[in-house]
Write a structure and sequence with these properties.
With about 220 residues, the chain is mostly beta strands. It has one domain (about 1-215): Sandwich (Jelly Rolls), CATH 2.60.120.10. Helices cover about 0% and strands about 55% of the residues. The strands form three sheets. Strands 1, 13, 14, 15, 16, 17, 18 and 19 form an eight-stranded antiparallel beta sheet that branches. A seven-stranded antiparallel beta sheet has the order 2-3-4-11-6-9-12, with no helix packed on it. β16 (about 170-180) and β17 (about 185) form a beta hairpin. It is globular and about 45 Å long.
Length: about 220
């Protein structure tokens, strides 16, 4: 099964000055009982922050928070003492564990655009963890240690092909360019949710960048 969500079908949020957000799933004040999550993925937000704008310090727990910067620079600061600038091509992971507070701001002079994704961990609690992988290479898998999910960043030249990983659930988010996949053409901000579709092949339309989540489990809420 394949389900495509177009960029203009996302819920628009962002009440803070200089912040625009597009949510793929139910989030904050928006609730759709038919669109709460997909596999382990509980949020996929595309954020646009004007220079000087951002999210003040706020709490999280029991989440794996993965961030991919598209353009600009993201300044991250958290209650465990990390203060980092994340740039395009970097993968940032914050494992909230039993509780952490963080802020995210655009302290640069250019607009900032990034995708932030929240996943459910395999076990609750634990100490918070943080890391940044600088300049991850094309198609290098990034496995989350605290959950059964792997991120595959892909960058393709026009007309190039790529094989998608085989997994019970695959989520694809196009960052730029276009991607022909499973009989659909996806553009920037479009996403595809795929169940049990082994052997899938994608083809780039123009210079293309996209993110693929490979997921091998459903969330376990412990009750």
């Amino acid at each position: 099964m394949t389900w495509v969500q177009r960029a203009d079908e996302r819920y628009r949020g962002g009440a803070e000055p200089g912040v625009e957000t597009w949510h793929a799933f139910s989030f904050s004040g928006f609730y759709d009982p038919d669109n709460v999550r997909f596999g382990l993925l509980a949020a996929c937000n595309e954020e646009h922050l004007a220079p000087g704008a951002g999210f003040d310090e706020h709490p999280h727990r029991d989440l794996e928070i993965v961030t991919w910067v598209i353009e600009g620079e993201l300044t991250h600061e958290d209650s465990t003492g990390h203060r980092t600038v994340v740039r395009p091509g970097d993968v940032q992971r914050l494992s909230a564990g039993s509780g952490v507070r963080h802020s995210e701001r655009n302290e640069g002079s250019r607009p900032l655009r990034f995708v932030q994704m929240w996943l459910t961990p395999a076990a609750w609690g634990g100490e918070p963890e943080y890391e940044v992988i600088r300049g991850i290479a094309d198609a290098t898998p990034y496995a989350l240690e605290r959950t059964e999910a792997v991120l595959h960043p892909r960058r393709l030249a026009d007309g190039a092909h790529t094989e998608l990983p085989d997994a019970p659930a695959i989520y694809v988010h196009v960052v730029r360019g276009g991607l022909r996949l499973a009989g659909e053409t996806l553009g920037p901000g479009d996403a595809a949710r795929l169940f049990e579709r082994p052997g899938l092949r994608g083809t780039a339309v123009g210079e293309t960048e996209f993110l693929v989540w490979e997921m091998h489990a459903e969330p376990d809420y412990g009750f």
